[in-house]
Amino acid sequence: MISIKSEREIKLMREAGKLNYLTHEEVKKHVKAGITTKELDKIAYNFISSHNAKPSFLNYEGYPASICVSINDEVVHGIPGKRVIKNGDIVSIDIGVELHGYHSDAARTYIVGEVAPEVRALVENTEKALMIGLSKIKEGAKIGDIGNAIETFAHAHGLSVVEELVGHGVGTNIHEDPDVPNYGKAGTGVTLRAGMVIAVEPMLNLGDRDIYLHDDDWTISTDDELPSAHFEHTVVVTKDGYKILTGEICDDEK
Ligand code: MF3
Ligand code: CO
Questions:
Q1: Sequence spans of domains, the chain
Q2: How many angstroms separate the alpha carbon of residue 231 from the centre of ligand 2?
Q3: Domain over 7-244 is classified CATH 3.90.230.10
Q4: Which ligand minimizes its atom distance to the CA of 165?
């Protein structure tokens, strides 16, 4: 079932999204060589809790931390721990925030220190792929339009698309219908309606698209150990486009 959110719900979801954005900004200040991923998790937990909100991921299906921190060949769902971030790493941070019973979901990948030009291009093009996917969104468009745009852009830049994990609806649950794949055919799939809230989240790889699940049952990495990047926003579909709920400014806010 795909829910259509009311104006009131969208306002609440924007508040959850704004806090998600602010949590990312807080964590970003600390993403540097020498910090452990567990310390980043703690910073996010404290920030979210101090705003009377909850980290959506904590205890979600048994997930043991507040955020996901996935480094280099790790695609998503890296569990924070003793690992120390070093120069030359790319670090994907994924944050879910629940406020007034509504969730928001957003991810970014940071470059720490110097990386090879093709790794920098991977990160920059994954963010561009997210924005190109979002640009297809408006009432009446199809879910397949989003994935097709992301996939076409990724392939044009020599990147592969992870297919096992997809974007999703967001609302009173962190994962709702519909699925939002990062691949597919334009003009196919669910029709977008104003008031639908979805998270679009391309995961692009420098090498092959194949991935595996670690023994911790969460961390997902590339088979070929080449790096992967991840960007995600939660957005609401509108009559002629979309509004990003997890950005700094949302539409006509000042
Ligand atoms: N942010 C992930 C997503 O976009 C969800 C991670 S939930 C976790 O779907 F519990 F696995 F962290
Ligand atoms: Co998500």
A1: 7-244
A2: 9
A3: yes
A4: 1
